[in-house]
Design a protein that fits this description.
Blueprint lengths: L2 H8 L7 E7 H4 L10 E5 L4 E4 L12 E9 L8 E5 L7 E6 L2 E6 L2 E7 L7 E9 L2 E6 L2 E2 L4 E2 L11 E3 L12 E11 L21 E5 L17 E3 L3 E3 L19 E4 L4 E4 L5 E4 L8 E4 L10 E9 L9 E2 L7 E3 L9 E3 L2 E4 L9 E8 L4 E7 L10 E4 L10 E2 L11 E10 L4 H11 L6
Antiparallel strand pairs: 1-31, 2-14, 2-17, 3-13, 3-16, 4-9, 4-14, 5-6, 5-13, 6-7, 7-8, 9-10, 10-11, 10-12, 14-15, 18-21, 19-20, 20-31, 21-30, 22-27, 22-31, 23-24, 23-30, 24-25, 25-26, 27-28, 28-29
Length: 444
């Protein structure tokens, strides 16, 4: 029996876990529906972001889309690269704006250029879209120049994707200004004619291989790839942003978010790459964010949450379903910092009270009736859960809410960075991969 087969056998042959829901404060960039006000700031001398070398940046001769918003300073270096895979003279794909001319580079040569107007000290949206060997470049939704024949084989999978300069920076290649909502889609050119620029923060669509909201540091790739973003020179957050509102869907674009924000109790903060913050702990306040799976039929699932209590009380529900059956909660509760309670079954109400960041997984395997909780801070989760129970009644949950019961009671004071939900029970290796992607986000 192979190691994988043994794992599946001991775990009840659970079906592979598939991501169903992803609410991320970083990806929102503000409270749902509110104007975003922040972006990433590059100083033009030493600051840039990199994502590791990957086949995701090797488009071959296929379709692709690259888009972003930028606010370029009036004073620039001679050859500023907005982004680049590789470096001159052999970069496989890159964009530079030199002396007012937009250059798009493929395999070491520029294949498109266009003189720009109104491109400095203002927010501008750019998009590059290749469809069936024809590439178009757009500024604020309007095509620059003409569509051109483009059969270049973009094959470099060994160079980093660098935002703000080249993969091997030279002094005159640093970009000066701000960048927001950078997205790469492999396999689809989504723009085929002039279009109205998006009015809300970008979401993942089929083929999205990189999605960087860039609203707060530490900066995250919130695509399904969760590529590590390395910040060189300390790219910072600035109080400037394009005219976008925070999307009212989760990152997958599947679930509509709704909220109650009585007395402004819940806010969005730039802390920890972006968090939702509730300042109230107690009864009688209908402050919440909701929108996600409504799994009233029992199934295997995994819920992953990054959170920190800012105070503890006898209330403290950070994440829970509707008050009725099935009753479900996760996070701090009853003066405890770690809890998982489902359908009347307590998985954990033990452990010390604290106000530190936690990465917690609540998991239920329908095949074995085992529910367990993995709660970690500075170390990866191991194969042994922190707390566990076997009870066939644990079951599913109604649509989850952040910070409050459905009746507005038992609210928690704390920060939530993200909530991710899978249809299926994750393996330890999958949880460790999630920890590796998210631990720096919450400061460890």
């Amino acid at each position: 029996m192979t190691g994988i087969a043994m794992l599946n056998s001991s775990f009840g042959a659970a079906a592979p876990a598939t991501l169903a829901y992803y609410l991320d404060a970083s990806a929102q960039g503000a409270f749902p529906g509110a104007s975003i006000t922040t972006s990433a700031s590059f100083n033009g001398t030493s600051q840039y972001l990199t994502l590791p070398a990957s086949t995701n940046w090797a488009f071959g001769t296929g379709d692709f889309t690259i888009e972003w918003w930028q606010y370029m300073s009036a004073t620039q270096n001679s050859f500023p690269r907005v982004f680049s895979v590789g470096s001159s003279p052999t970069a496989s794909i890159a964009v530079s704006i030199e002396g007012g001319t937009f250059y798009f580079w493929e395999n070491g040569s520029f294949t498109f250029s266009s003189v720009l107007s109104s491109y400095t000290t203002t927010w501008v949206h750019f998009a590059i879209s290749r469809v069936s060997g024809q590439t178009s470049v757009y500024q604020n939704g309007t095509k620059l120049g003409s569509t051109f024949s483009d059969t270049n084989n973009i094959s470099d999978s060994s160079s980093t994707l660098t935002i703000g300069t080249e993969s091997t920076p030279a002094a005159d290649t640093y970009y000066t200004g701000y960048i927001s909502n950078f997205r790469i889609i492999k396999g689809t050119g989504i723009y085929t004619a002039n279009f109205s620029t998006p009015t809300s923060t970008l979401r993942s669509v089929t083929g999205t291989v990189a999605l960087l909201p860039l609203t707060a540091a530490p900066f995250m790739d919130v695509s399904t790839n969760l590529a590590t973003v390395t910040n060189t020179g300390t790219v910072t957050t600035t109080a400037s942003a394009p005219g976008l509102t925070a999307a009212t869907t989760d990152v997958t674009g599947t679930y509509t978010l709704s909220y109650g924000n009585t007395s402004g109790r819940i806010t969005w903060s730039t802390d920890q790459g972006g968090v939702f913050r509730n300042t109230f702990s107690g009864d009688g306040i209908n402050a919440y964010i909701t929108g996600g799976p409504d799994w009233s039929t029992q199934r295997s699932y995994t819920v992953f949450m990054g959170y920190k209590l800012t105070g503890t009380s006898n209330y403290g529900r950070l994440l829970n379903s509707n008050t009725g059956t099935p009753d479900w909660l996760m996070g701090g509760y009853s003066s405890k910092s770690k809890a998982y309670f489902a359908n009347g079954t307590t998985i954990n109400l033990a452990g010390p009270t604290d106000t530190t960041w936690h990465l917690d997984w609540a998991r239920f395997n329908k095949n074995t009736s085992v529910g367990d909780l993995f709660s970690v801070t500075t170390a990866q989760p191991t194969g042994t859960p922190a707390y566990t129970a076997t009870n066939s009644a644990i079951g599913a949950f109604n649509q989850l809410k952040l910070f409050s019961k459905s009746d507005g009671n038992e609210c928690a004071a704390g920060d939530i960075a993200f909530v991710r939900i899978w249809n299926g029970a994750m393996t330890t290796a999958q949880m460790q991969a999630e920890w590796a992607a998210f631990h720096a986000r919450v400061g460890f």
